Amino acid sequence: MKTLPRTSTTEMEVTSIRLEKTLKDKLKELSGHQGYQALIRDILWNYVQQKSGDYRPQFSAVDIRATIESVARKDESCVLTGKLIQAGQPMLLGLTIYGDFVPLSLDSIS
Fold first, then answer.
1. Which residue of 17, 37, 65, 106 has the lowest C-beta tally within 10 Å?
2. Could you give the CA distance from residue 69 to residue 92 in angstroms, rounded to a whole number?
């Protein structure tokens, strides 16, 4: 997970959120030295970027575990080359080492 630049806590607003104790404990385990509040901020920023269309994942060919032939249903951008894949064009869906499917142009994987 890519960490965003740190914002000074004086520029942050306090927000209260209720979490199940088991969820909070799991977040603490997963956060390691980062701290679970910083982990939650990273998760929320990733969600906002993905939903807003600002998210541009950074992948290399070694991150792709498998590919599936597909056809683009809308304009896509190849995550490896940035090449436009127009709606209706053949493309590949790449399964990443993180378990995500990402759009790939046909010539992006050798």
1. 17
2. 5
Average pLDDT, the chain: 87
Percent of the residues in the chain that have a pLDDT greater than 70, as a whole number: 90
CB 91 within 8 A of CB 109: no
Which residue type, as a one-letter code, is found at position 73? R
Burial class of residue 108 in the structure, from the number of CB atoms within 10 Å of its CB (0-12 exposed, 13-18 middle, 19+ buried)? buried
Residues 41 and 49: their CA atoms lie apart, in Å, by 12
Average pLDDT on 4-23 reads 84
CA pair distance 54, 49, nearest whole angstrom: 5
Q: 77-97 in b/e burial notation, b at 16+ Cβ within 10 A?
A: ebbbeebebeeeeebbbbbee
